TrEMBL record:
Protein name as annotated: Acyl-ACP--UDP-N-acetylglucosamine O-acyltransferase
Keyword entries, A-Z: Acyltransferase, Cytoplasm, Lipid A biosynthesis, Lipid biosynthesis, Lipid metabolism, Transferase
DNA damage in keyword set: no
Biological process according to GO: lipid A biosynthetic process
Major enzyme class: transferase
Organism, as annotated: Deferribacter autotrophicus
Its EC number(s): 2.3.1.129
Positions of the Mannose-1-phosphate guanyltransferase C-terminal domain: 4-57
Top-level division of the source organism's lineage: Bacteria
The UDP N-acetylglucosamine O-acyltransferase C-terminal domain, residue ranges: 174-254
Pfam families xref list: Acetyltransf_11, GMPPB_C
One function term, GO molecular function aspect: acyl-[acyl-carrier-protein]-UDP-N-acetylglucosamine O-acyltransferase activity
InterPro entries: Acetyltransf_C, Acetyltransf_C_sf, GMPPB_C, Lipid_A_LpxA, Trimer_LpxA-like_sf
GO cellular component, one term: membrane
Gene encoding the protein: lpxA
Amino acid sequence: MIHKTAIIDKTAEIGQNVEIGPNVYIGKNCIIHDGVKIGVGAVIEENTEILENTVISPNAHLGGPPQDISYRGEDTKLKIGKNCVIREFTTIHRASTKEDWITEIGDNCYIMASSHIAHDCKFGNNIILTSYSGIAGHVHVGDFAVISGLVAVHQFVRIGKLAMIGGMSRITQDVPPFTLVEGNPAVIHGLNVVGLRRRNILPEVRSELKKLLKVYLDKSLTKEEAINEMKLIANSNEGIEFVSFFESSKRGIIRR
């Protein structure tokens, strides 16, 4: 059902069983897949694709140009996955031209009210972003991560899989997967044990991750020494992913 007051550009593609509320604006080259619901006054500005069964709440603003002074109006894109919920007054911007020209949100993400996701961000699946949090440009977030309210994330930071960030934290360096991080400046407080249990991560794997984290937090070791020692411990897929994250960090990793 499309409300009579909605404005839809002639180049936009609208799927089956889509609900578009009053005063919605859908701009050029947007693709709205089957079963999407778009609430009152929402703006889907341009070059935005929204996959099946995602819900866009009233007054959300998606697909606006990047807040990047080098941007010159190029046809960059925003893609939002299946079964997401984007709550009211959220803003998610299209990409700049500095990476692959696309900002991307995975499937089953819950983006709460008045939060912001900037240009060139890459969100995995099943991520929760809580109200009033700001994610700067080029940030990558792994599957099942939870970012609590009023968190500020610096550009180019990576947040690992199943990490949880406490409210009002300032994140300026990479957050390792499976960890619990909080503070200003943020520090690691341990493993995200609750999240690991909810994802049915085996006790022996949790024990291995605990050992790996203890090595990394040992300040008597340099980063290289810590990585070498962790490689001797890591056997599970999760452990190997944990060590690989440290090896590939460019901004540095939060440490207690």
